[in-house]
Amino acid sequence: MKxxxxxxxxxxxxxxxxxxxxxxxxxxxASRPFYNLMMFPYxxxxxxxxxxxxTFTGVDIYGRCKRMQGHDVFExxxxxxxxxxxxxxxxxxxxxxxxxxxxxxxxxxxxxxxIGNGFAWDERLETxxxxxxxxxxxxxxxxxxxxxxxxxxxxxxxCPKCATVLADEQVIAGECERCQTQVIKKDLEQWFFKxxxxxxxxxxxxxxxxxxxxxxxxxxxxxxxxxxxxxxxxIKNSDRVITIFTTRPDTLFGATYMVLSPEHQxxxxxxxxxxxxxxxxxxxxxxxxxxxxxxxxxxxxxxxxLKGIKAINPANxxxxxxxxxxxxxxxxxxxxxxxxxxxx
Length: 344
Known about the structure:
The protein has helices at about 5-20, 50-70, 85-90, 95-115, 130-145, 200-205, 215-225, 265-270, 275-285, 290-295; strands at about 35, 70-75, 80, 125, 150-160, 165, 170, 175, 185-195, 230-235, 240-245, 255-260, 305-310, 320-325, 335-340. The protein is α+β, with helices and mostly antiparallel strands. It folds into four domains: about 5-135, Rossmann fold (3-Layer(aba) Sandwich); about 145-195, no CATH class; about 195-225; about 230-340, Alpha-Beta Complex (Isoleucyl-tRNA Synthetase, domain 2), CATH 3.90.740.10.
């Protein structure tokens, strides 16, 4: 039996598909348009990852199915060349990231074309093309003008060697997943988007999309809408207050102590009044070595009382102690909570 000559046969059909524009739908006159987008690969290291091939293949199968059902399938492709992965590899081989992007682009497009997917090559784009990212910049400027983009300080995972911020998923056992350097916590001023302005619309929109309930639940948790009240607790012998958010303001009479996140700015502002400052600082330093996931998943709660500082319960005027504990997160609510027996 003659062996299948896949190199020549597949090359022949790839060339015919390109010549006939088989996978180039008429974007202006499509009667049943179907947008079949898989995220663009980032062109770092030596070439396309096998995981990317697996994912692109699954998406392409779906696109072919929709095409057989009569849809005008548009399956775009491109490269997402912005990111620390690409930059790190360029530095590693001693090339400027821009030069490396040009080299890797050729290699990636060669590999992507050889897997035979139904990509619309005429519409390909690269995110590092100035003609593309100028629109990203334009969108950001519009968001800034509308008051939706703002700057503030926040605690982040920082890799000293890569000199970049890492997501919690990129921190493995306290180390950078790429270079195994010990990750530290660092307060950096950075940009944020006011997605909370759209929380209600996002939540309502989930009722009208064809997603699995598992994904919808994850989205609802990510949006994190809560209804409740903000309450100020005065600090004894100080003009400062601790603001907390609670969904149960009716339990205020039962509040017996306060808890601050290790990143809460009040700790540094009142540092000289904290009688056990060294103990508190050691606890904060230890918490900086934990990821947010580790802090949330801890089975036992830990913390240190800020001795010498008391808060005043606004409901009954009683003095209550203040603690610092890493199970309270600076990015959730106000970074401070009131503790009520049976409701903490």
